[in-house]
Amino acid sequence: MSVSAALRGQTATLERLRVDRQLEEALVHGPDPLHLAEVFGLAEKTDIRYADSARALLAQTAELSTSPSGKELGPA
Questions:
Q1: What pLDDT sits at residue 1?
Q2: Per-residue exposure over 1-33, b if at least 16 CB sit within 10 Å of its own CB, e if not
Q3: Contact at 8 Å (CB) between 51 and 31?
Q4: Contacts (Cβ under 8 Å, ≥6 apart) of 72
Q5: Residue 45 burial by Cβ neighbours in a 10 Å radius (0-12, 13-18, 19+)
Q6: What is the C-alpha separation between 35 and 28, in angstroms, rounded?
Q7: Residue closest to 25 by CA, chosen among 51, 59, 64
């Protein structure tokens, strides 16, 4: 299957791809606004917003990876 066939019907705008890349960077390297500013040259408020989003996603992932008893779950 070609890439264009796989993406047909998806709404992947350049803006959405840019935002996704910036959020991925924040998740991979930690939610550090200074790092985001260095890599992407973003404005201070934007850096902080992306870092906050990354922190929320990391916290949500951490919550989902533990059982109700507080023990970590293994790989599915």
A1: 59
A2: eeeeeeeeeeeeeeeeeeeeebbebbbeeebbb
A3: yes
A4: 65, 66
A5: exposed
A6: 11
A7: 51
Residue 42: Cβ-neighbour burial (10 angstroms; 0-12, 13-18, 19+): middle
Segments of the chain scoring below 50 in pLDDT: 73-76
User: How many Cβ atoms from other residues are within 10 Å of residue 47's Cβ?
Assistant: 23
Helices (H) and strands (E) in the chain, counts: 4, 0
Tokens of 66: 């533990």
What is the pTM for the complete model shown?
A: 0.55
Find the angle CA(51)-CA(40)-CA(45) to the nearest 5 degrees. 45
Q: Which residue has the tokens 């992947």?
A: 12
